[in-house]
Fold:
Amino acid sequence: MAGMVPYSEYEKALRRAWPFSAIDDFFTPVLSVDASDAFPMDVEDADDHYVVSAHLPGVKKDEIDVELNEGRLSISVDKKESDEEKQRNYLHKETSEWSATRGVYLKDAQTEGLTAKLADGVLTVTVPKVQEKSNATKVTIE
Structure:
């Protein structure tokens, strides 16, 4: 049981076991961001609507783009450094410019009534569901 690896971590575990991983790490860019690691996202089904929460600490709302297109909700972030930050003389800097897009398919998402709110580093998007219409018609047999 202790040797089990979650499926999402399987590829990373394989890379660590690879004998040439040190060489591979040398050629991997230091600031590369895997799309699934870019920012965590939670999707909740709350009866008549969906609630999508994206954890985006340090990101301003003008750096975020939210779009619903044919049931696919996409959240794109384009984090840029300000000109003031570029002027500073850093000895060590772990923050950088980055961009990432995460998406989720919501089959019965309604395009009207969407709301998005950014508070305390968490973007919360509320997507109402389309009310189900019965497409079935009762046919009388003569």
User: Anything to note?
Assistant: The mean pLDDT is 80. Residues 55 and 122 are 5 Å apart (CA to CA).
